Amino acid sequence: MSTYHRRQRSSVLNALDEARFGSQRTLNLRESLPTAADAMARTEAWLRERQVAISGEVLVVTGRGKGSPGGVGVVRDAIRKLLGSLRRRGVVTDFVDHTQGSFVVTLAPVSTLLEAPRRNRERATPTAAPRIVSSLGALDGATQTLLRELAERALSTLGTAVPDHFVDAEMMRQFNLLAAAIDPGPGGEERLRQAIARAIDEIDNA
Fold first, then answer.
1. What would the mean pLDDT of 92-101 be, rounded to a whole number?
2. Residue 10's closest CA among 80, 65, 58, 63?
3. Are residues 156 and 127 in the same domain?
């Protein structure tokens, strides 16, 4: 295939990816040429933020690594390992090679993220925590109500009744997991409420 035809084919594929994913569902690491460590940190933060904001598939562009030592894609290999780790931690459900320089990643439901730590501890009993009023008192009342509803839904899947202080501990655990993936800037608490509402809906419809 001539250079012209390769470029033409690449342009067509890029146009198809833009139509399928758009800027909100695309992380292009190739543009900034990060180190493997920087690429992993940036990708994990982006995927966690996307998980609580949207659902479905996203595109992670790593590049093929043609300029890497030995022609081995260091960034691509690092991102592949990271995606495997994030799958075990409930952030993504699957990922596949899209091209030689990109992955299509399927985001896990928010409820999967919240459940993953408990699965890893073999559903250990939550430890007691300070009352939620003092721990999360800076949150709006509507946010606290939603967070308590989510905690009660999650704990109900254990099949046993739990005291209030266990619910408080679960609220704090889930808040920490969700807040870590949400931009705390203007509108941050509204985005938090949207993520909580999504998780509740996923549990109810599981």
1. 93
2. 63
3. yes
